[in-house]
Write a structure and sequence with these properties.
The structure holds two protein chains of two kinds. Chain A is an alpha/beta fold. Chain A folds into two domains: 94 residues, Urease, subunit C, domain 1; 309 residues, Metal-dependent hydrolases (TIM Barrel). Helix content of chain A is 31%, strand content 23%. Chain A has 14 helices and 18 strands. In chain A, the strands form three sheets. In chain A, strands 1, 2, 3, 4, 5, 16, 17 and 18 form an eight-stranded mixed beta sheet that branches. In chain A, strands 6-7-8-9-10-13-14-15 form an eight-stranded parallel beta sheet. A two-stranded parallel ribbon of chain A has the order 11-12. In chain A, strand 6, helix 1 and strand 7 form a beta-alpha-beta unit. In chain A, helix 8 runs parallel beside helix 11. Chain B is of the alpha/beta class. Chain B is 34% helix and 14% strand. In chain B, the strands form two sheets. Chain B has a five-stranded parallel beta sheet with strand order 7-6-5-8-9. In chain B, helix 3 crosses helix 4, helix 5 crosses helix 6 and helix 5 packs across helix 11. Chain B is globular. The two termini of chain B are 35 Å apart. Classes of the chains: A alpha/beta, B alpha/beta. At the A-B interface, helix 6 of A face helix 3 and helix 4 of B.
Amino acid sequence: MTRLLIRNGRVVDPSQGIDQGMDLLIDDGLVAALGEKLDVAADTPVFDASGLVVAPGFIDIHTHLREPGFEYKETIESGCRAAAAGGFTAVCALANTSPVNDEPAVTRYVIEKAGEVSATRIYPVGALSKGCNGEELAEIGKMIEAGAVAISDSPNPVANGLLMRRALEYCRSFDVPVMVHPEDLELTDRGAMHEGRVSTRIGLRGMPGAAEQGVVARDILLAELTRGRLHLCHLSTAASLEMVRIAKRRGLKITCEVTPHHFTLIDEDIAKANYDPQWKMNPPLRGTKDRQAVLEAIQDGTVDAIVSDHAPHHQDEKEMDFADAPFGISALETAVSLALDRLVHRRVIGIGQLVQLMSTSPAKIMGLPGGSLEEGAVADITLLNLGMRVSVDPKTFLSKGKNTPFTGMNLRGAPAATIVGGKVVWKR
Amino acid sequence: MVIEAAAALSSKDLVGIAPLEAGEIQLLLDTAEQLLEVARRPIKKVPTLRGMTVINLFMEASTRTRFSFEVAEKRLSADTLNFSASTSSVSKGETLFDTARNLMAMAPDFIVIRHPNTGAPHRLAHVVTASVINAGDGSNEHPTQALLDAFTMRRHFGDLAGLKVVIAGDIRHSRVARSNAFLLSKMGAEVRFVAPASLLPPGVQELGVKPFLRLEPALEGADVVMMLRIQMERQKRMNFPSAREYFDFFGLTPERLKLANEGALVMHPGPMNRGVEIDSEVADGDQSVILEQVTNGVAIRMAILYLLAGGRSDAATDS
């Protein structure tokens, strides 16, 4: 019996409509009690949460952990340490490793390796197609049986509409979401940044917003056709979000996610950065109207989850010119601070809504334990210091990936501690 | 519009026209004017860069730009090293920064770089102490070409301000068009881009130009007609139907040239596709200054090297 009393924190749990000063008692990895001034045995270990927010554990449902195959970029161990330091109690690991997680042996490897080296929870996402190459369905059922919680070829799109249709249909038998990276590669045409006034001015090849929007439209229609569970990854444009808004209004059970970099940065930042590929990600940083649309969609509930889209790369891979460098940023350790600074402190949403977007909804979308602090729930808890000021310094990242555009940015609000299954796995 | 020449260039590098002030462009053009004379001497060499080393790093195929730089360097008595790669060194596993570190170990004073990707010279300039000169990066800039084009125009018209310059062709992929647009608009000229929209970048007005979807209306009142190479190797991707159709609607023929001002200059950065973007009769006609552009290119590149080496323009040709 391992007990821990989290005393005197501000408990924010949208699953129960709670936002008030309370104590929380953990017993044997589960939430045992929640209440004002809990009476506990004198020898119960205490975590003083005065001044901190106590929230159900944050779950990042879009993380690239790189192992197996690209351990020089990130390992399961380093990625999970980064997740804990970023305030996440669980991550969903995408399938684009080497070998690709397109068969149950790889799924099991990830789960077993995580069990050995990771204090945070890892839920593998299986590939939609063999090799993530968009040709034939992977062994979805067997991967789910082995522990995969969703399927996705992300960061590869599913170009073939028929394959996408079949995936949505087939997954209904297993009740898992199909996560899609919406991009028409013919339209993005080897582009490196958002196509618009800035790409025209600075001469980088553009990726038009329509390349995302066309696929979003197709997949929403396919979700309607198949009644499958569609989850749209990292939406970045106003029109994509508007289509999701309309689809939801019509009663479709689709979900979507956005990233902190898309609600923080814009394409103009690439111009200011003098072609530094730290600003290169896919989907690319868009213009101010798209950024504003992302914020509005977060505010009005169109967005279901905020995800990091953690995509660590080795420093050598970013010592390239913009076009040759790979897409992606190391994001696990900046996501929560960006969300607190840009969304909560700037009054886009309240802290309860943020917890909903980073814990309760992600758990629900992926069908995971957590997302709630009700009695009997797993004791996965994220503690937040809303007032703390941090300056982003990649040298302090626990992730192997130091690739971030946020170096030197001053942010207000940060994770203070991460508790998984009742154990404090990281504390500032 | 009177533009005073700057006293010196403000940066150690010439990575593009976009970062230059009008006064710096004026200084470069004035300096080239003096250096043009060197080519007419029996011994076409001045000792200005003696003891200095220039690395010509060409990571994309080039003949005329590379030769032009090399001639310019040799006329200024610099030692030159040529490094050509048919493919970028990235495919050999070396990062751009490693290439830069290796080059710096040879202590060059200048690195002239052509690279298939936008921004490569800018990244290089950021990590090396040598002066970096952009000889063309991706679809971004080709500043030395724009300077030699402007120099050629100025020699014919005396001033760039008020000129109406038509640039027609594959604007979307053209670094020449972009650098010319930046330069000419800074110097007070009017730039008209002509192409079907499939060959124009989005929001092209951002570059300070007037876009035209047909050649004829753009030619009205034009002082200069610059035709760009249609890069057939890049046209696999459905940008227009055929070379024949392109020539029919967008090619510069003697009849179409008559729509421009009398005596309008015909320019082309080369290499030309005769019968695709330009009719041979026009290319070889009286109004063509295409070979003059090549001659002027050497003077412009000498001026860039000279000024980046810290010289003053009035002493450019002294011994």
